[in-house]
């Protein structure tokens, strides 16, 4: 899947949503849409397709912002780190360590 908002297609979102549903079901069982569960330290709910797309776009925006900050040498605050972790949790993804995530890209 493309992690660029300008290049993300409906097919990319559909594929990401299917993967999300598989992750959600494997971790929490067959839950109805809207059901809340605890993922790590974050309370999240099983998302419908439209809500998932909004959360996916948020994740990509936060990820892009973090990458830009690291590339420019900026310090990433705890608030930004928490935003990234929460955005990932809503997609039932464990947020990677930000420095480790981009270290291979930056050399």
Describe this structure in words.
By secondary structure, the protein is mostly helical. The chain has one domain (10-106). It has four helices and two strands. It has helices at 10-28, 49-72, 78-90, 98-106; strands spanning 36-39, 42-45. Strands 1-2 form a two-stranded antiparallel sheet. Helix 2 crosses helix 4.
Produce a short descriptive summary.
The protein has helices spanning 10-28, 49-72, 78-90, 98-106; strands at residues 36-39, 42-45. The chain is mainly α and 107 residues long.
Which SSEs are present, and which pair or pack?
Blueprint: H1 10-28, E1 36-39, E2 42-45, H2 49-72, H3 78-90, H4 98-106
Antiparallel strand pairs: 1-2
Helix pairs in contact: 1-2, 2-3, 2-4
State the shape.
globular
Structural class estimated from helices and strands = mainly alpha
- The CA-CA distance between the termini, in Å, is 23 Å
Cross-sheet strand order for the largest sheet? 1-2
What is the overall number of helices? 4
User: How much helicity do the residues have?
Assistant: 55-70%
Mean pLDDT: 87
Low-confidence stretches: none
The total domain count is 1
Q: What fraction strand?
A: 5-15%
Strand element count: 2
Characterize the biggest β-sheet: 2 strands, antiparallel
Helix and strand string, N-terminal first? Answer: HEEHHH
What Rg, in angstroms, do the CA atoms define? 14 Å
List keywords for this structure.
single chain; 4 helices; mainly alpha; 61% helix; 107 residues
């Amino acid at each position: 899947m493309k992690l660029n908002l300008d290049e993300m297609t409906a097919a990319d979102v559909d594929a990401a949503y299917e993967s999300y549903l598989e992750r959600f079901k494997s971790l929490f069982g067959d839950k109805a849409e809207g059901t809340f569960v605890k993922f790590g330290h974050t309370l999240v709910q099983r998302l419908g397709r439209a809500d998932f797309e909004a959360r996916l776009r948020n994740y990509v925006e936060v990820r892009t912002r973090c990458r830009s900050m690291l590339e420019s040498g900026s310090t990433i605050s705890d608030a930004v780190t928490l935003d990234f972790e929460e955005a990932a949790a809503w997609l039932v993804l464990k947020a990677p360590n930000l420095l480790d995530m981009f270290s291979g890209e930056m050399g």
